[in-house]
Specification:
The chain starts with a strand and ends with a strand. The strands form two sheets. Strands 3-2-1-4-5-6-7-8 form an eight-stranded mixed β-sheet, with helices on both faces. It has helices spanning 12-21, 33-40, 51-59, 95-104, 124-137, 175-185, 198-228, 233-240, 264-274, 280-306, 334-344, 378-382, 398-404, and strands spanning 2-6, 25-29, 63-66, 77-80, 113-116, 146-149, 168-172, 192-195, 315-319, 348-352, 386-389, 408-410, 425-427. By secondary structure, the protein is of the alpha/beta class. It is globular, with a radius of gyration of 23 Å.
Length: 428
């Protein structure tokens, strides 16, 4: 069997490698020629996906990357794994999904399967995407080709998370579409979770991400409330999670990052308004989480003031640019917002991230592109008036940080294990 995966990013590439491991021939489609060339040379640009895995798939003849979307005519299925960002007005941007649909449709063969994996609002697959596919192919979904939705479930940076063992939710446009999708995914994933429709599968993915967003907002708010009472929210969470039932720990931070949690809830709020429904709870959680970088920036200013320094002219080092530990993914990272806020206050800002040596060009942060991570050395770290821990990478030596830094603002509680440095550590 041969399939195509459109979009070779943090979702599409690991998925393609997993299918290749399972004996399926994979044709990777991407609009970036440099990315395609690197993959065909057996190279990886994702930290948690080793180059050896891609090289093996290439060596076995199970993986090939191309920019030629007309080669969709060679495959039995196309999995769409492209971005679904928000516009500047925080409305869903389906252009990547729909443009991909328009690109593959003219080459779609009768009997082929199309699956959307990108996170989106209920109705995208069976309305907007279906209409584009039908318009540009001349075929009818559910009759001439199969259509389904199966949301990605990736946990990058977690070595215990293996794609083959993560249950896969699948919804089909018709019962026959669902069966076709189940036949495909059963080749690469151990457990399938079929649901009644594409919309139910789309709603499932949103629930998963909204659940995290709301609970993170709760602990972010409690961090502020308990802090005003002189109570350490990290201590409270550690105690609460000893309860063996009815509680799940979530942790505060400097803001939300990644492509899912900061964005996906707003896909539902936008769609809900079309049905005359309000999503006040979800929107409130978004407001709380979005405000966190401002709170952290104010905390940095307060800490500097307590040490007799003004933020204007101060040298501040942000430790961690990736949105979560042990990955090189900086999409929607709150560290960018912190860089902007501190620079606007007059600070001289820099960053260190062992996994992101240079800031890549992106849609949102072009003004930081090309800035390099500073060296990890006593001279460099001690030259800054304050180090702000935004991401707790395991590759960082925090004992050296405690020894070298003048003072530290810790948003991740990672310095709690170094009590002897307490005098120079401030939580945020």
């Amino acid at each position: 069997m041969k399939i195509a995966i459109a979009g070779l990013g943090y979702v599409g590439l690991p998925l393609g490698v997993q299918f290749a491991r399972s004996g399926v021939s994979v044709l990777g489609l991407d609009v970036d020629p440099a990315k395609v060339s690197a993959l065909n040379a057996g190279q990886s640009y994702i930290l948690h996906l080793p180059a050896a895995a891609i090289a093996e798939a290439r060596r076995n003849g199970r993986f090939e990357a191309t920019t030629d979307f007309s080669r969709v005519r060679e495959v039995a299925a196309v999995l769409i794994c492209v971005p679904t960002p928000l516009t500047k007005n925080r409305e869903p941007d389906l252009s990547y999904v729909l443009n991909t649909g328009a690109a593959i449709a003219p080459h779609l063969q009768r009997g082929a399967l199309v699956v959307l994996e990108s996170t989106t609002y209920p109705g995208t697959t069976d309305t907007e995407l279906r209409e584009v596919l039908e318009k540009h192919s001349g075929l009818k979904a559910g009759k001439d080709f199969y259509l389904a939705y199966s949301p990605e479930r990736e946990d990058p940076g977690n070595p215990q998370s293996k794609l083959a063992e993560i249950p896969k939710v699948i919804g089909g446009y018709t019962p026959a579409c669902l069966e076709k999708a189940k036949q495909l995914y059963s080749r690469a994933v151990k457990t399938l979770v079929p649901v009644s429709s594409c919309r139910a599968a789309e709603a499932t993915k949103l629930l998963e991400n909204i659940f995290r967003s709301v609970n993170i907002a709760l602990v972010n708010e409690l961090k502020i409330v308990y802090g005003s009472m002189g109570i350490d929210v990290w201590e409270v969470i550690a105690a609460a999670k000893t309860k063996p039932f009815g509680f799940m720990p979530f942790y505060p931070g400097p803001g939300l990052g990644g492509h899912c949690i900061p964005i996906d809830p707003f896909y539902l709020t936008w769609k809900a308004r079309q049905f005359g429904q309000e999503t006040r709870f979800i929107e409130l959680a978004g407001e709380i989480n979005t405000a966190m970088p401002d709170l952290v920036a104010r905390r940095v200013e307060e800490v500097l003031a307590s040490r007799g320094k003004k933020i204007s002219g101060a040298r501040v080092l942000i430790l961690g640019l990736a949105y979560k530990p042990n990955v090189d993914d900086d999409r929607e990272s709150p560290s960018y917002r912190l860089l902007d806020l501190l620079k606007a206050r007059g600070a001289t800002v820099a960053y260190h991230d062992p996994h992101i040596p240079v800031i890549r060009s992106s849609r949102e942060h072009t003004h930081w592109a090309g800035i390099r991570s500073v060296a990890w050395s006593q001279a460099e770290i001690s030259s800054h008036d304050l180090v702000l821990i935004a991401t707790a990478h395991a590759a960082v030596n925090y004992r050296e940080l405690a020894e070298w830094a003048q003072c530290i603002v810790d948003t991740r509680n990672v310095m709690a294990t170094i009590p002897e440095a307490a005098a120079k550590i401030f939580k945020a």
